[in-house]
Amino acid sequence: MRCKLCICELEVPCRIGASEQERAGTQIVWVNIELEFELPTADELGATVDYAALANDVKSFCANRSWKLIETMAADLADLVLNKSSALWVAVEVKKAALVDARFVSATVIRQRHTAT
Question: What mean pLDDT, rounded, does the chain reach?
Answer without folding.
Answer: 94
